[in-house]
Design goal:
Largest sheet: 8 strands, mixed
Strand content: 5-15%
Radius of gyration: 27 Å
Order of helices and strands: HHHEHEHEHEHEEEHEHEHEHHHHHHHHH
Structural class: alpha/beta
Strand order of the largest sheet: 3-2-1-4-5-8-9-10
Shape: globular
Number of helices: 19
Number of strands: 10
Helix content: 55-70%
Protein backbone atom coordinates (compact mmCIF):
# COMPACT_ATOMS: atom_id res chain seq x y z
CA UNK A 1 0.00 0.00 0.00
CA UNK A 2 2.85 2.41 0.83
CA UNK A 3 4.44 1.79 -2.53
CA UNK A 4 1.14 2.38 -4.33
CA UNK A 5 0.71 5.70 -2.51
CA UNK A 6 4.30 6.66 -3.40
CA UNK A 7 3.72 5.94 -7.07
CA UNK A 8 0.47 7.93 -7.08
CA UNK A 9 2.19 10.90 -5.42
CA UNK A 10 4.94 10.90 -8.06
CA UNK A 11 2.42 10.67 -10.91
CA UNK A 12 0.40 13.54 -9.42
CA UNK A 13 3.48 15.77 -9.21
CA UNK A 14 4.38 14.84 -12.77
CA UNK A 15 0.91 15.68 -14.06
CA UNK A 16 1.43 19.16 -12.63
CA UNK A 17 4.70 19.54 -14.52
CA UNK A 18 6.82 19.50 -11.34
CA UNK A 19 9.55 17.35 -12.84
CA UNK A 20 12.26 18.66 -10.51
CA UNK A 21 10.45 17.21 -7.50
CA UNK A 22 10.81 13.75 -9.02
CA UNK A 23 14.57 14.04 -8.76
CA UNK A 24 14.18 14.69 -5.03
CA UNK A 25 11.55 11.99 -4.58
CA UNK A 26 13.58 9.23 -6.23
CA UNK A 27 16.16 8.69 -3.47
CA UNK A 28 13.54 9.22 -0.78
CA UNK A 29 11.22 6.59 -2.25
CA UNK A 30 14.08 4.15 -2.64
CA UNK A 31 15.15 4.69 0.96
CA UNK A 32 11.57 4.30 2.13
CA UNK A 33 11.02 1.04 0.28
CA UNK A 34 14.29 -0.39 1.57
CA UNK A 35 13.28 0.57 5.12
CA UNK A 36 9.86 -1.09 4.75
CA UNK A 37 11.45 -4.16 3.22
CA UNK A 38 13.92 -4.47 6.09
CA UNK A 39 11.23 -4.06 8.78
CA UNK A 40 8.91 -6.53 7.11
CA UNK A 41 11.59 -9.17 6.85
CA UNK A 42 12.78 -8.62 10.43
CA UNK A 43 9.28 -8.89 11.80
CA UNK A 44 8.51 -12.03 9.87
CA UNK A 45 11.79 -13.69 10.70
CA UNK A 46 11.22 -13.03 14.40
CA UNK A 47 7.92 -14.78 14.08
CA UNK A 48 8.99 -18.40 13.64
CA UNK A 49 5.66 -19.35 12.19
CA UNK A 50 6.11 -16.85 9.38
CA UNK A 51 9.71 -17.68 8.44
CA UNK A 52 8.73 -19.67 5.41
CA UNK A 53 6.24 -17.07 4.27
CA UNK A 54 8.70 -14.23 4.78
CA UNK A 55 11.28 -15.83 2.55
CA UNK A 56 8.63 -16.21 -0.09
CA UNK A 57 7.83 -12.49 0.00
CA UNK A 58 11.35 -11.32 -0.83
CA UNK A 59 11.03 -11.66 -4.61
CA UNK A 60 7.69 -9.79 -4.55
CA UNK A 61 9.23 -6.92 -2.58
CA UNK A 62 12.16 -6.75 -4.96
CA UNK A 63 9.80 -6.66 -7.94
CA UNK A 64 7.76 -3.85 -6.40
CA UNK A 65 10.97 -1.98 -5.66
CA UNK A 66 12.02 -2.30 -9.28
CA UNK A 67 8.60 -1.06 -10.42
CA UNK A 68 8.90 2.06 -8.25
CA UNK A 69 12.36 2.79 -9.63
CA UNK A 70 11.19 2.29 -13.22
CA UNK A 71 8.13 4.51 -12.82
CA UNK A 72 10.05 7.34 -11.19
CA UNK A 73 12.93 7.24 -13.68
CA UNK A 74 10.58 7.08 -16.65
CA UNK A 75 8.57 10.06 -15.48
CA UNK A 76 11.59 12.10 -14.45
CA UNK A 77 13.15 11.99 -17.90
CA UNK A 78 10.03 12.33 -20.03
CA UNK A 79 9.20 15.97 -19.27
CA UNK A 80 5.65 17.29 -19.32
CA UNK A 81 3.21 14.71 -20.71
CA UNK A 82 1.98 16.87 -23.60
CA UNK A 83 1.87 15.65 -27.18
CA UNK A 84 1.63 18.25 -29.95
CA UNK A 85 1.22 18.21 -33.69
CA UNK A 86 1.99 21.12 -36.00
CA UNK A 87 0.23 21.92 -39.27
CA UNK A 88 2.50 23.91 -41.59
CA UNK A 89 6.14 24.89 -41.72
CA UNK A 90 8.39 27.94 -41.05
CA UNK A 91 6.82 29.39 -37.87
CA UNK A 92 5.47 25.93 -37.06
CA UNK A 93 8.91 24.39 -37.42
CA UNK A 94 10.48 27.02 -35.16
CA UNK A 95 7.89 26.46 -32.43
CA UNK A 96 8.14 22.69 -32.83
CA UNK A 97 11.91 22.85 -32.25
CA UNK A 98 11.40 24.96 -29.14
CA UNK A 99 8.70 22.71 -27.69
CA UNK A 100 10.67 19.55 -28.43
CA UNK A 101 13.51 21.05 -26.40
CA UNK A 102 10.92 21.73 -23.66
CA UNK A 103 10.51 17.95 -23.40
CA UNK A 104 7.23 17.58 -25.30
CA UNK A 105 6.46 14.95 -27.91
CA UNK A 106 6.11 16.72 -31.25
CA UNK A 107 4.96 15.82 -34.76
CA UNK A 108 5.17 18.01 -37.89
CA UNK A 109 2.77 17.75 -40.83
CA UNK A 110 2.70 19.69 -44.09
CA UNK A 111 0.48 19.54 -47.15
CA UNK A 112 3.64 20.18 -49.19
CA UNK A 113 5.14 16.70 -49.35
CA UNK A 114 8.47 18.02 -50.68
CA UNK A 115 8.92 19.94 -47.41
CA UNK A 116 8.37 16.82 -45.35
CA UNK A 117 10.86 14.90 -47.51
CA UNK A 118 13.43 17.69 -47.17
CA UNK A 119 13.10 17.74 -43.38
CA UNK A 120 13.26 13.95 -43.18
CA UNK A 121 16.44 13.87 -45.25
CA UNK A 122 18.26 16.92 -43.87
CA UNK A 123 16.57 17.50 -40.45
CA UNK A 124 16.73 21.16 -41.47
CA UNK A 125 14.46 23.59 -43.33
CA UNK A 126 17.11 24.88 -45.70
CA UNK A 127 14.85 27.52 -47.29
CA UNK A 128 13.21 29.02 -44.21
CA UNK A 129 15.48 28.18 -41.27
CA UNK A 130 18.93 27.38 -42.68
CA UNK A 131 21.42 26.09 -40.12
CA UNK A 132 18.76 25.18 -37.55
CA UNK A 133 18.62 21.43 -37.00
CA UNK A 134 15.43 19.59 -36.19
CA UNK A 135 15.74 17.48 -33.01
CA UNK A 136 15.66 13.76 -33.74
CA UNK A 137 12.70 13.41 -31.37
CA UNK A 138 10.41 15.33 -33.75
CA UNK A 139 8.37 13.01 -35.93
CA UNK A 140 7.32 13.91 -39.48
CA UNK A 141 4.26 12.84 -41.41
CA UNK A 142 2.42 13.44 -44.68
CA UNK A 143 -0.70 11.73 -43.34
CA UNK A 144 -3.25 14.27 -42.06
CA UNK A 145 -5.20 11.59 -40.21
CA UNK A 146 -2.07 10.55 -38.32
CA UNK A 147 -1.35 14.21 -37.52
CA UNK A 148 -4.78 14.57 -35.86
CA UNK A 149 -4.83 11.40 -33.78
CA UNK A 150 -4.40 11.39 -29.99
CA UNK A 151 -2.69 14.76 -29.59
CA UNK A 152 -3.15 16.98 -26.56
CA UNK A 153 -2.78 20.12 -28.68
CA UNK A 154 -2.84 20.85 -32.42
CA UNK A 155 -0.95 23.95 -33.57
CA UNK A 156 -2.20 25.55 -36.79
CA UNK A 157 0.70 27.28 -38.54
CA UNK A 158 -0.80 27.34 -42.02
CA UNK A 159 -0.48 30.37 -44.32
CA UNK A 160 -3.73 32.35 -44.32
CA UNK A 161 -4.89 31.46 -47.87
CA UNK A 162 -4.83 27.75 -47.00
CA UNK A 163 -6.32 27.72 -43.49
CA UNK A 164 -9.90 27.00 -44.54
CA UNK A 165 -8.91 24.20 -46.91
CA UNK A 166 -6.68 22.59 -44.28
CA UNK A 167 -9.37 22.86 -41.60
CA UNK A 168 -11.97 21.29 -43.89
CA UNK A 169 -9.67 18.37 -44.62
CA UNK A 170 -8.82 17.86 -40.95
CA UNK A 171 -12.38 18.11 -39.59
CA UNK A 172 -13.28 14.43 -39.85
CA UNK A 173 -10.20 13.42 -37.87
CA UNK A 174 -10.60 15.94 -35.03
CA UNK A 175 -12.09 14.66 -31.78
CA UNK A 176 -14.73 16.53 -29.78
CA UNK A 177 -13.13 19.02 -27.41
CA UNK A 178 -9.74 18.91 -29.19
CA UNK A 179 -7.64 21.93 -28.27
CA UNK A 180 -6.24 23.86 -31.24
CA UNK A 181 -4.09 27.01 -31.16
CA UNK A 182 -3.67 29.08 -34.30
CA UNK A 183 -0.34 30.91 -34.68
CA UNK A 184 -0.81 32.22 -38.24
CA UNK A 185 -2.01 35.78 -38.89
CA UNK A 186 -4.46 37.04 -41.45
CA UNK A 187 -8.04 37.78 -42.52
CA UNK A 188 -9.87 35.96 -45.29
CA UNK A 189 -10.52 38.67 -47.86
CA UNK A 190 -13.76 37.34 -49.35
CA UNK A 191 -15.51 36.61 -46.02
CA UNK A 192 -13.73 39.13 -43.71
CA UNK A 193 -13.24 36.24 -41.28
CA UNK A 194 -10.22 35.90 -39.00
CA UNK A 195 -8.21 32.68 -39.15
CA UNK A 196 -9.41 31.46 -35.76
CA UNK A 197 -13.01 32.09 -36.79
CA UNK A 198 -12.39 30.05 -39.95
CA UNK A 199 -11.10 27.11 -37.89
CA UNK A 200 -14.09 27.40 -35.55
CA UNK A 201 -16.47 27.35 -38.52
CA UNK A 202 -14.85 24.34 -40.17
CA UNK A 203 -14.07 22.37 -36.98
CA UNK A 204 -16.91 23.32 -34.62
CA UNK A 205 -16.17 20.41 -32.27
CA UNK A 206 -12.76 21.88 -31.37
CA UNK A 207 -11.77 24.47 -28.78
CA UNK A 208 -9.70 27.05 -30.67
CA UNK A 209 -7.28 29.60 -29.22
CA UNK A 210 -4.84 32.03 -30.80
CA UNK A 211 -1.18 32.83 -30.08
CA UNK A 212 0.37 36.01 -31.45
CA UNK A 213 3.00 38.66 -30.88
CA UNK A 214 6.45 39.75 -32.12
CA UNK A 215 7.90 36.32 -32.82
CA UNK A 216 9.88 35.87 -36.04
CA UNK A 217 10.53 32.18 -36.67
CA UNK A 218 14.20 32.83 -37.43
CA UNK A 219 14.73 34.06 -33.87
CA UNK A 220 12.41 31.69 -32.01
CA UNK A 221 14.18 28.70 -33.58
CA UNK A 222 17.57 29.71 -32.14
CA UNK A 223 16.30 30.69 -28.70
CA UNK A 224 16.26 34.49 -28.93
CA UNK A 225 14.20 35.78 -25.96
CA UNK A 226 10.65 36.31 -27.23
CA UNK A 227 7.35 37.33 -25.66
CA UNK A 228 3.85 36.60 -27.00
CA UNK A 229 0.23 36.48 -25.88
CA UNK A 230 -2.33 33.68 -26.08
CA UNK A 231 -6.04 34.39 -26.30
CA UNK A 232 -8.86 31.94 -25.58
CA UNK A 233 -12.52 31.94 -24.60
CA UNK A 234 -11.78 29.97 -21.42
CA UNK A 235 -9.09 31.08 -18.99
CA UNK A 236 -8.25 27.44 -18.31
CA UNK A 237 -7.42 26.92 -21.98
CA UNK A 238 -5.23 30.01 -22.12
CA UNK A 239 -3.42 28.91 -18.95
CA UNK A 240 -2.94 25.41 -20.38
CA UNK A 241 -1.33 26.71 -23.59
CA UNK A 242 0.74 29.21 -21.62
CA UNK A 243 2.13 26.37 -19.52
CA UNK A 244 3.05 24.32 -22.60
CA UNK A 245 4.84 27.07 -24.52
CA UNK A 246 6.51 29.05 -21.76
CA UNK A 247 10.21 28.68 -20.94
CA UNK A 248 13.20 30.87 -20.12
CA UNK A 249 13.43 32.08 -23.75
CA UNK A 250 9.73 32.23 -24.64
CA UNK A 251 7.47 34.15 -22.30
CA UNK A 252 3.69 33.86 -22.75
CA UNK A 253 0.98 36.17 -21.42
CA UNK A 254 -2.76 35.40 -21.53
CA UNK A 255 -5.74 37.49 -22.59
CA UNK A 256 -9.49 37.06 -23.18
CA UNK A 257 -9.45 39.59 -26.06
CA UNK A 258 -9.29 37.16 -28.98
CA UNK A 259 -10.57 39.55 -31.66
CA UNK A 260 -8.13 42.26 -30.57
CA UNK A 261 -5.20 39.84 -30.74
CA UNK A 262 -6.21 38.63 -34.20
CA UNK A 263 -6.85 42.07 -35.67
CA UNK A 264 -3.55 43.42 -34.36
CA UNK A 265 -1.63 40.45 -35.73
CA UNK A 266 -3.34 40.63 -39.13
CA UNK A 267 -3.61 44.32 -40.01
CA UNK A 268 -0.09 45.13 -38.81
CA UNK A 269 1.10 43.25 -41.91
CA UNK A 270 -0.61 45.86 -44.09
CA UNK A 271 1.08 48.69 -42.19
CA UNK A 272 4.39 46.84 -42.57
CA UNK A 273 3.91 46.89 -46.35
CA UNK A 274 3.59 50.67 -46.09
CA UNK A 275 6.68 50.93 -43.90
CA UNK A 276 8.70 48.80 -46.31
CA UNK A 277 7.48 50.91 -49.23
CA UNK A 278 8.69 54.03 -47.43
CA UNK A 279 12.11 52.40 -47.02
CA UNK A 280 12.14 51.50 -50.70
CA UNK A 281 11.38 55.11 -51.59
CA UNK A 282 14.39 56.20 -49.56
CA UNK A 283 12.50 57.82 -46.69
CA UNK A 284 13.89 57.72 -43.17
CA UNK A 285 13.08 56.87 -39.59
CA UNK A 286 10.70 59.80 -39.21
CA UNK A 287 8.43 58.36 -41.89
CA UNK A 288 8.51 54.88 -40.42
CA UNK A 289 7.72 56.18 -36.93
CA UNK A 290 4.76 58.09 -38.33
CA UNK A 291 3.42 55.00 -40.11
CA UNK A 292 3.78 52.87 -36.97
CA UNK A 293 2.06 55.31 -34.62
CA UNK A 294 -0.70 56.33 -37.01
CA UNK A 295 -1.03 52.72 -38.13
CA UNK A 296 -1.74 51.43 -34.63
CA UNK A 297 -4.29 54.25 -34.25
CA UNK A 298 -6.14 53.00 -37.34
CA UNK A 299 -6.02 49.39 -36.15
CA UNK A 300 -7.28 50.41 -32.72
CA UNK A 301 -10.19 52.43 -34.14
CA UNK A 302 -11.36 49.46 -36.18
CA UNK A 303 -10.80 47.02 -33.33
CA UNK A 304 -12.86 49.09 -30.91
CA UNK A 305 -15.79 49.12 -33.37
CA UNK A 306 -15.48 45.33 -33.69
CA UNK A 307 -15.55 44.76 -29.92
CA UNK A 308 -11.85 44.62 -29.09
CA UNK A 309 -10.20 46.38 -26.15
CA UNK A 310 -7.85 49.31 -26.86
CA UNK A 311 -5.39 48.01 -24.26
CA UNK A 312 -4.72 44.99 -26.50
CA UNK A 313 -3.40 47.23 -29.28
CA UNK A 314 -0.93 48.80 -26.87
CA UNK A 315 0.41 45.32 -26.06
CA UNK A 316 2.34 42.51 -27.68
CA UNK A 317 -0.08 41.62 -30.46
CA UNK A 318 -0.62 45.29 -31.27
CA UNK A 319 2.20 47.81 -31.11
CA UNK A 320 4.73 45.07 -30.25
CA UNK A 321 4.06 43.01 -33.36
CA UNK A 322 3.71 46.15 -35.49
CA UNK A 323 7.14 47.48 -34.51
CA UNK A 324 8.98 44.25 -35.24
CA UNK A 325 7.17 43.67 -38.54
CA UNK A 326 7.84 47.21 -39.77
CA UNK A 327 11.50 47.23 -38.80
CA UNK A 328 12.86 43.68 -38.92
CA UNK A 329 15.12 42.24 -41.62
CA UNK A 330 13.13 39.01 -41.22
CA UNK A 331 9.78 40.60 -42.16
CA UNK A 332 8.48 39.33 -45.49
CA UNK A 333 5.83 42.08 -45.50
CA UNK A 334 8.42 44.81 -45.05
CA UNK A 335 10.58 43.21 -47.74
CA UNK A 336 7.70 43.07 -50.21
CA UNK A 337 6.89 46.71 -49.44
CA UNK A 338 10.51 47.70 -49.95
CA UNK A 339 10.49 46.11 -53.40
CA UNK A 340 7.25 47.93 -54.27
CA UNK A 341 8.91 51.19 -53.20
CA UNK A 342 11.76 50.29 -55.56
CA UNK A 343 9.32 50.02 -58.45
CA UNK A 344 8.24 46.36 -58.40
CA UNK A 345 4.61 45.50 -58.96
CA UNK A 346 2.77 43.64 -56.21
CA UNK A 347 3.00 40.39 -58.19
CA UNK A 348 6.72 40.85 -58.85
CA UNK A 349 7.41 41.63 -55.19
CA UNK A 350 5.57 38.52 -53.97
CA UNK A 351 7.45 36.36 -56.45
CA UNK A 352 10.77 37.79 -55.29
CA UNK A 353 9.99 37.20 -51.60
CA UNK A 354 9.14 33.53 -52.35
CA UNK A 355 6.88 33.25 -49.33
CA UNK A 356 3.28 34.12 -48.63
CA UNK A 357 3.03 37.88 -47.97
CA UNK A 358 0.12 37.95 -45.55
CA UNK A 359 -0.30 41.72 -45.77
CA UNK A 360 -1.34 41.52 -49.41
CA UNK A 361 -4.18 39.15 -48.53
CA UNK A 362 -5.21 41.14 -45.45
CA UNK A 363 -5.10 44.56 -47.14
CA UNK A 364 -8.33 44.20 -49.10
CA UNK A 365 -10.10 42.66 -46.09
CA UNK A 366 -8.95 45.51 -43.83
CA UNK A 367 -10.26 48.08 -46.29
CA UNK A 368 -13.63 46.34 -46.54
CA UNK A 369 -13.86 46.11 -42.75
CA UNK A 370 -13.15 49.84 -42.47
CA UNK A 371 -16.02 50.51 -44.87
CA UNK A 372 -18.34 48.05 -43.13
CA UNK A 373 -17.74 49.58 -39.69
CA UNK A 374 -17.40 53.14 -41.03
CA UNK A 375 -13.90 53.64 -39.66
CA UNK A 376 -11.45 56.03 -41.32
CA UNK A 377 -8.23 54.15 -42.19
CA UNK A 378 -6.24 56.32 -44.64
CA UNK A 379 -3.02 54.26 -44.57
CA UNK A 380 -4.94 51.06 -45.31
CA UNK A 381 -6.78 52.83 -48.13
CA UNK A 382 -3.59 54.07 -49.79
CA UNK A 383 -1.87 50.67 -49.47
CA UNK A 384 -4.82 49.10 -51.30
CA UNK A 385 -4.54 51.67 -54.08
CA UNK A 386 -0.84 50.91 -54.50
CA UNK A 387 -1.36 47.14 -54.45
CA UNK A 388 -4.48 46.77 -56.57
CA UNK A 389 -4.93 50.02 -58.50
CA UNK A 390 -1.30 50.54 -59.57
CA UNK A 391 -1.08 53.92 -57.83
CA UNK A 392 2.55 55.11 -57.60
CA UNK A 393 3.85 54.68 -54.05
CA UNK A 394 5.32 58.18 -53.87
CA UNK A 395 1.96 59.65 -54.85
CA UNK A 396 0.24 57.64 -52.12
CA UNK A 397 2.64 59.06 -49.52
CA UNK A 398 2.03 62.59 -50.77
CA UNK A 399 -1.74 62.13 -50.52
CA UNK A 400 -1.36 60.93 -46.93
CA UNK A 401 0.72 63.97 -46.04
CA UNK A 402 -1.73 66.42 -47.64
CA UNK A 403 -4.91 65.15 -45.99
CA UNK A 404 -7.11 67.62 -44.15
CA UNK A 405 -5.75 69.04 -40.91
CA UNK A 406 -6.61 66.92 -37.86
CA UNK A 407 -6.38 66.87 -34.07
CA UNK A 408 -4.20 63.95 -33.02
CA UNK A 409 -6.36 62.80 -30.11
CA UNK A 410 -9.92 64.15 -30.42
CA UNK A 411 -11.05 62.91 -27.00
CA UNK A 412 -8.58 65.19 -25.16
CA UNK A 413 -10.26 68.44 -24.07
CA UNK A 414 -8.88 71.94 -24.61
CA UNK A 415 -8.75 73.99 -21.43
Amino acid sequence: MCRIISILVVIWFHSKGVTLILVVLLPLILAFTRHVQKNMLSAKIRNRKAVGRASGHVPVILILNAVVVAVVMLLSVSGNPVILTFFGMSAGTALAIMLAKNGHEVMLWSAVEAEVDMLAQNREHKNRLPGVKLPESIRLTKDLKEACADFDLIVFSVASPYVRQTAKQAKEYIADGQKIVNVAKGIEDDTLTTLREIICEEIPQAEVAVLSGPSHAEEVAVGVPTTVVVGAEQKETADYIQEIFMNDRFRVYTSPDIIGIELGGSIKNVIALAAGTADGLGYGDNTKAALITRGITEIGRLGKKMGAQMETFYGLSGIGDLIVTCASKHSRNRKAGYLIGQGYTMEEAMKEVQMVVEGVYSARAARELSEKYEVEMPIITEVNKVLFEKKPAAEAVMDLMLRDKKVETPILPWE
